[in-house]
Amino acid sequence: MSNILHLIKKLQKAIITHLYDNGFFELKDAVMFVSDNLNLTKYAIYKHLRELKGE
Questions:
Q1: DSSP element (H, E) containing 16
Q2: Start and end of every Transcriptional regulator DauR-like HTH domain (predicted)?
């Protein structure tokens, strides 16, 4: 089961990275949209975005 969870988290991070690279998060309410559709908290999304920005 932990392998599946690991793969899901890796896929979620890959999706967030792809969206970030394509400027999706510049749109209004983008974080909430992704949060709802990936079943992640907005705080988890912001954490991934900070990591991508190197903050």
A1: helix 2-21
A2: 9-50
Residues of the domain holding 17:
2-53
Q: 52: closest CA among 29, 28, 18, 10?
A: 18
Site of tokens 């709802």: 36
Query: Which residue pairs, CB below 8 angstroms and at least 24 apart, start in 37-40?
Result: 38/12, 40/12
Structure confidence by residue, pLDDT tens digits, 3-26: 999 999 999 999 999 999 999 999
| Structure tokens, 30 | 């983008």
How many structural domains comprise the chain? 1
pTM (2 d.p.): 0.87
